[in-house]
Amino acid sequence: MARKPLIAGNWKMNLNHLEAIGVTQKLAFALPGKYFDVVDVAVLPPFTDLRSVQTLVDADSMPITYGGQDLSPEDSGAFTGDVSGAMLAKLGCTWVVVGHSERRTIHGEDDELVNRKVHAALRHGLTPILCLGEGEEVRDAGGHVAHCTGQLDGALKGLSADDVAKVVVAYEPVWAIGTGKTAGVADAQEVCHALRERLREVHGAGVADRVRILYGGSVKSNNVADLVKSDDVDGALVGGASLDPEGFAELCALAAGGPLP
Ligand SMILES: O=C[C@H](O)COP(=O)(O)O
């Protein structure tokens, strides 16, 4: 089944709301409309930027989608500092990142919390970009496939097949994030394939064939094309390389099959 690739730029804690306007404008200007027929392009700015990005995207009818980098598992109430799925949905978000390794490591998020966040996202009509991936020691010990399929099972617990089909999975080996070390194309395909097979086993072929599985970890213009050519890699979650709009536009174009004119 043909799955449209998704290239999502996770800005992490970079770019204030004024800078966000400039970067989004430049990205839309640099990437001709025809590329959006072939790839979906998303930006994932900090919470404080979302209203500015929404206003710009709406005003100029940009084909770019956007989303948050995290959400609360709760819907409202006394949860100081948290942002709910309802709030993100109201801002026109399509996506929300859940379970990024930086949240798992720095904020101690476990599979149970990640699972609650996936449920919260879907409850509010947001598409979760569910991140998972192994650390270097797990890979060195050869446990990467079991580790990642275990995280997948934990995150999807209690979801209907219809809801699982809506989720985007992002395989991000922790040792490749922000390090310049990219998993080889064969390594990325191995884990993405194993994740799809696990989806097939637990949720059925119809679901497994629909779910987009991205690769993330030091994706750049020089490796994106080869990565997305792999059978089970349906796009990329891009960190550092998404902060430069012209470079990110080039990366999106390469994922769509050719460089910018
Ligand atoms: O969410 C994005 C990933 O953490 C990858 O970040 P990176 O492209 O800077 O390695």
What does this structure look like?
By secondary structure, the chain is α/β, with parallel strands linked by helices. The longest helix has 19 residues, at 185-203. Helix 11 links the parallel strand 7 (212-216) and strand 8. The chain has an eight-stranded parallel β-barrel, surrounded by five helices. The chain has twelve helices and eight strands. Helix 1 packs parallel to helix 2 and helix 7 (144-156) crosses helix 9 (185-203). Bound molecules: glyceraldehyde-3-phosphate (G3H). Glyceraldehyde-3-phosphate is lined by residues 10, 100, 172, 177-178, 216-219, 237-241. Glyceraldehyde-3-phosphate (G3H) binds at residues 10, 100, 172, 177-178, 216-219, 237-241.
Helix-strand layout with pairing:
Layout: E1 6-10, H1 17-30, E2 40-44, H2 50-59, E3 65-68, H3 85-90, E4 95-98, H4 101-106, H5 111-123, E5 127-132, H6 136-140, H7 144-156, H8 161-166, E6 168-171, H9 185-203, H10 205-210, E7 212-216, H11 224-229, E8 235-238, H12 245-255
Parallel strand pairs: 1-2, 1-8, 2-3, 3-4, 4-5, 5-6, 6-7, 7-8
The protein binds glyceraldehyde-3-phosphate (G3H).
Give the C-alpha Rg: 17 Å
List low-confidence stretches.
Answer: none
By DSSP (H or I, 4+ residues per run), the number of helices equals: 12
* Major sheet description: 8 strands, parallel, barrel
Alpha-carbon distance between the two ends: 29 Å
How would you state the average pLDDT, rounded?
Answer: 97
SSE class:
alpha/beta
Helicity level, as a percent range? 40-55%
**Which shape, going by the Cα principal axes?**
globular
- Tell me the strand percentage band: 5-15%
Number of strands: 8
**What is the topology, as strand order, of the major beta sheet?**
1-2-3-4-5-6-7-8
Order of helices and strands: EHEHEHEHHEHHHEHHEHEH
Bound molecules: glyceraldehyde-3-phosphate
